[in-house]
Amino acid sequence: MRELTLIHLYPDLMNLYGDRGNIVTLKRRCEWRGIQLNVVPVSLGDPFDADRADIVFIGGGQDYEQAILQDDALTKKRDDILRAVESDVVFLAICGGYQLLGSHYLTGEGKRIECLGALDVCTEAGRKRLIGNLIFDCPFLPEENRKVIGFENHSGMTFRGPSVNPLGRVLYGHGNTGSDGTEGALYRNVIGSYSHGSLLPKNPALADFLLERALLRRYPAGERLSPLPDELERKAREGLLKRFLHTS
Amino acid sequence: MAFSAKTSAAVLAARFLTFTMRLLGSGGTSLPGKVALRICPDLLARLSGHFSILMVTGTNGKTTTSRMVAQLLEASGLRYRTNKSGANLASGITATVACATSLFGNPKVPWLLLEADEAAFRVTAPHLKPKAVIATNFFRDQLDRFGELYSTLNAVREGLAGTPDSLLVFNADDSLCASLGIGMDTGKAASRRLFPFGLSVSASPGSDAFSSDAAFCIRCSTRYRYSASSYGHLGHFSCPSCGYGRPTPAILCETVVAGPDSSRVRIVTNRGAYEAEIGLPGLYNVYNGLSAAALAEALSLPHDAVVKALASFERGFGRMESFQAEGRTVQIILVKNPTGFDQVLGYLETLPGPVTPAFLINDGLADGTDVSWLWDVDFERFAARFASRFEEQAADDAAFMAVSGLRADDMAVRLKYAGVPESRILICPEPDAMFLDALARTPKGGTLCLMPTYTALLALRGILAKRYGLRDFWK
Q1: Which residue of A97, A141, A146, B235 pairs with A58 in a disulfide if CB–CB is 3.0 to 4.6 A?
Q2: Among A12, A24, A201, beta carbon nearest to B215
Q3: Chain A contact for B374 (CB, 8 A cutoff)
Q4: Kindly report the CA angle at B232 between B229 and B233, in degrees rounded to 5?
Q5: How much is the pTM?
Q6: Which of A12, A132, A235 sits opposite B211 (nearest CB)?
Q7: Which one of B337, B372, B403 makes the best mutation probe of the A interface by having the most chain A beta carbons within 10 Å?
């Protein structure tokens, strides 16, 4: 039986807006294909084992909780996280987790908060909170599932450096900055996004994309993922796309 | 304060509009207050001095607690008015205050009981100068509206700062709520009189929540230690670093004997110990009852009035109302945030006989436009507990779960990933049609348990009122 290990970073601190749904989704979609997904929580004081990780997930948190983990992340885990990113471990980082992977966060008072620097993006506090349903187009997903649906709730505006591609183009909602038309970041196998929702259950193609990448890295000669019926997911997606994009 | 023509006009407008809208059969509750405030922006400050005002705020349990307090006032022989309909925003509160005032500026009743949304509390409490405030608890709720839980807590903190003489009744087991009782800078108790309530160690069953809303000390960010826990982040917390910890409850629930329809509790205060029956099941209702009992201490109301109130209060709008329909029991329980939802699912597991869970999820402003909180509810556990029911009733294909509302499909996906077989999920986005279908498919003698979000509840009430004569909710 093929096996993958997912490291859930700071699950007790970064757990806003149903982000755990992403893990539930990855776990089920592995289970339905006879793949075992081991979920390992790694929080304050725990070592981050880059060699063990196939997938790393980090969710969003409230400002209060994010401030608590800052020191632990930078002094105890930074090097291992950077090594994991550069060796193509799959990352999914949502909202506060996405910001944490970047180089720094500039507060409204102009204070610079150092972040991990694993991803060439930086975030500035915005004046307005960007809240609402978010739909964006991801060109690397299969044609019929390119539109990714989530829900954003952030005041930070995230800017990308030259080495980082946007995850997608905003079709509905705000995205990275609210004005540049992009949402999220894609670098090597790292995906950063502002989409809660949860993101993966409503976008099974994206969930499978992450699993494919992780499997390819761990089992280069292994067979590809078998397709799943996804009827309920398709129905939920169609309803929302119709409602917000007025597509038929 | 002199009663000016402006005040009089505002009172008149609010009363006239409220009366007219009721006459027209509209349940709308925000317009009269808005108009009154437009005419006289400082109306609340002008009117509040005539009343003894009680306010109930916090994220969960406001309505049920208010119903209990209402009954407590009743049983104590105190005449009151209240914003009964769940009109707990500033406009609804204003209308209630105005309608309790005569055109000559005299109070029609001595007491006002006002349920206040946290943001509304911040704005109105400094003007209302309530005699006592109940802060029930702080759980994540409707974050898309408020931003973050700490903002919600701070809204209440700010409101309290504007009314320093109010007696404060608060949940000692909730580290967030209990922080309202300490001066945040000094750690010393504020000068106001405090009435913390909480559960004893033996009354706390232990929490199995998979994510806490407040795991880290609000003062110094160290992880709390718990010597007992009840549910969510509620329990006997203490910070090993700065010494912040659960205040000793002045109103302690010493024992809880939980039943399917009610809980029997023993309450200890410095005026003595007594037993009471709380007429709704679930530990969260024990807390609600305890907060009403704590208010009785703050106001020196007799214990027998508490006992009477907790046993006989009127169930709130969509708070576990039940009625009989075609030989089945129909129960309605409002759901609005993960902790509350988990408690409701726990209650469903205790129901005997066939149960059809029906989830009605909307994403209107009053529901929270973000439905991602459904992923924070422990449906995994619920699905596992229900799996045996599916097996038992496999032959006649009876056991199922229904989903409805604007986000019916999202809810169906949630159940699928929780482990509910797709063939057992009935999807019917239209609430009335779902209700009729699910009722017909629930075995006779069984229970159809409707769990709607707020606007889905409103959508259902029409058909339920017409068919089963449920009273109009704003009365």
Answers
A1: A97
A2: A12
A3: yes
A4: 65
A5: 0.83
A6: A12
A7: B372
Q: From the CA of A85, how many Å to the nearest CA of chain B? A: 27
Tell me whether residues B413 and A233 touch, CB distance under 8 A.
yes
B61, B93, B100, B107, B148 from B71: Cα distances, Å: 16, 19, 18, 20, 33
- Say yes or no: B148 contacts chain A, CB-CB below 8 A: yes
Q: Over the stretch B263-319, which tens digit does the pLDDT of each residue have?
A: 999 999 999 999 999 998 889 999 999 999 999 999 999 999 999 999 998 776 667
Chain A residues touching residue B210 (CB < 8 angstroms): 20
Q: Any chain A CB within 8 A of the CB of B241?
A: no
Please give the backbone phi and psi of residue B316, each rounded to the nearest 5 degrees, phi first. -75, 175
The answer to whether A201 contacts B375, with C-beta atoms less than 8 Å apart, is: yes
Q: For residues A52-90, b (16+ Cβ closer than 10 Å) or e, as one string?
A: ebbbbbbbbbbeebbebbeebbbeebbebbbebbeeebb
Contact list in A for residue B219 (CB cut-off 8 A) is none
Q: Cα separation of B97 and B113, whole Å?
A: 10
What pLDDT does residue A19 have?
Answer: 87
**Spatial contact of B369 and A132, defined as CB atoms under 8 Å apart:** yes
- The answer to whether A150 touches A131, Cβ cutoff 8 Å, is no
pLDDT in tens, A6-24: 999 999 888 888 889 999 9
pLDDT digits (tens, 9 = 90+) for B361-394: 999 888 888 899 999 999 999 999 888 776 665 5
**Considering only CA atoms, which of B15, B2, B105, B22 is closest in space to residue B473?**
B22
- Would you please indicate which residues of A are annotated as catalytic (active-site) residues? 95, 196
Distance from CA of A155 to the nearest CA of B (A): 10
C-alpha–C-alpha distance, residues B41 and B60, integer Å: 29
ipTM above 0.90, yes or no: yes
Say whether residue A241 is in contact with chain B using an 8 A CB cutoff.
no
Domain ranges of chain A: 3-245
Condensed to tens digits (0 to 9), the pLDDT of residues B96-141 reads: 999 999 888 889 999 999 999 999 999 999 999 999 999 999 987 6
Q: Which domains does chain B have, with CATH numbers?
A: 51-312 (3.40.1190.10), 319-468 (3.90.190.20)
B271 touches chain A (CB under 8 A): no
Q: CB-based contact (8 Å) between A8 and chain B?
A: no
CA distance linking residue B209 with residue B436, whole number of Å:
34
**What's the token pair of residue A245?**
């994009």
Contact B88, B115 (CB under 8 A): yes
Q: Does A62 touch chain B (CB under 8 A)?
A: yes
Among candidates B147, B372, B418 on the partner chain, residue whose Cβ is nearest the Cβ of A18: B372
Q: Which of A151, A232, A235 sits opposite B370 (nearest CB)?
A: A151
Shortest distance, CA A75 to any CA of chain B (angstroms): 17
DSSP-derived letter for residue B402 is E
- HSE of B7 in the Cβ direction (CA atoms, 13 Å)? 19
Strands B319-325 and B328-333: antiparallel
Kind and range of the H or E element at B355?
strand B355-360
* Residue A109 pLDDT level (bands cut at 50, 70, 90): confident
Kindly list the distances between the CA atom of residue A221 and the CA atoms of A36, A188, A213, in Å, as whole numbers in the listed order. Answer: 18, 20, 13
Q: Which CATH superfamily is domain A3-245 in?
A: Class I glutamine amidotransferase (GATase) domain (3.40.50.880)
- The C-alpha atoms of residue B437 and residue B426 are separated, in whole angstroms, by 9
CB pairs under 8 A between A and B: 91
